[in-house]
Amino acid sequence: MRKGIYILPNLFTTGSLFAGFYSMVATTNGDFRTAAIWILVSSIFDGLDGKVARLTGTASKFGVEYDSLADLVAFGVTPGLLMYSWALKPFGRLGWVAAFLFVACAALRLARFNVQVATVESKRFVGLPTPAAASMVSSTVLLFYHFGWPSSFKKLAILILIYFVAFLMVSNFRYYSFKDPELIKRQPFVFLVLAVLLLTIIAAQPVIMLFVVFLCYVFSGPVAYVMTWPRRRRLEKAVHKGHEAVSQGERHE
């Protein structure tokens, strides 16, 4: 701290924190659509601060801790308050307990990430990242406003969503982190075409497509776990047989 701190990445983190706080202000004013949009803005700032720190070589322990505190506010407390005010208040105590579960799981997810950051593969996150969980919530709110679905359906859907997303945040499912250095290197031309096509579709129907994109990412962890289950079982059996062979060899000696 005596040597100072890096300004640029921490300004992006502050931007994320500001967007999360403004979302809470919008929620208390009953403007839930604006609140949902500012959570998405916060996730953009959160994605930029880490990339700026890595590209400029300004990553620091202070930045990591500051980012986690900002994430807890922007992607834990803010969406929890939004969900309670928008859909869960009629449930009374059950409503605010469900919202608190989301906040608690976000805090546990961030604490586990800080502990495992030096030991876990950088290309994968363990558990659903909190920005993705909060973005899933905000895109759901925007989808309901887009289609004008009834409030009874809203209450049931958001209650199921809370428990599902909270579980995924503290699960051991692996999620792609988009931190792979290969992404910024030369790629086949077809990748550019697909990227342009995706951006065009999102621009045409932003609310629907954002919901679909976040939903696909949320389910990517469980789907990848199921698809890799046979390979993991074979690996576990091979390791177990190896241990048995070593044990038998030691007994013969």
From TrEMBL:
What does the UniProt keyword field contain? Answer: Lipid biosynthesis, Lipid metabolism, Membrane, Phospholipid biosynthesis, Phospholipid metabolism, Transferase, Transmembrane, Transmembrane helix
Which topology term describes how it sits in the membrane?
Answer: Multi-pass membrane protein
Taxonomy, superkingdom: Bacteria
Q: Which residues cross the membrane?
A: 7-26, 94-113, 125-145, 157-176, 188-204, 210-227
Which Pfam family, giving just one, matches this sequence?
CDP-OH_P_transf
Q: Name any one GO molecular function.
A: CDP-diacylglycerol-serine O-phosphatidyltransferase activity
What does it catalyze? Answer: a CDP-1,2-diacyl-sn-glycerol + L-serine = a 1,2-diacyl-sn-glycero-3-phospho-L-serine + CMP + H(+)
Q: State its location(s).
A: Endomembrane system
Broadest EC class assigned to this enzyme: transferase
**Enzyme Commission numbers on file:** 2.7.8.8
* Keyword Transferase (UniProt): yes
Name the protein family: Belongs to the CDP-alcohol phosphatidyltransferase class-I family.
Q: Which NCBIfam families match?
A: pssA
**PANTHER family according to UniProt:** CDP-DIACYLGLYCEROL--GLYCEROL-3-PHOSPHATE 3-PHOSPHATIDYLTRANSFERASE-RELATED, CDP-DIACYLGLYCEROL--SERINE O-PHOSPHATIDYLTRANSFERASE
Instruction: Spell out the protein name for this chain.
Output: CDP-diacylglycerol--serine O-phosphatidyltransferase
Which species is this UniProt entry from? Geomobilimonas luticola
Gene behind the chain: pssA
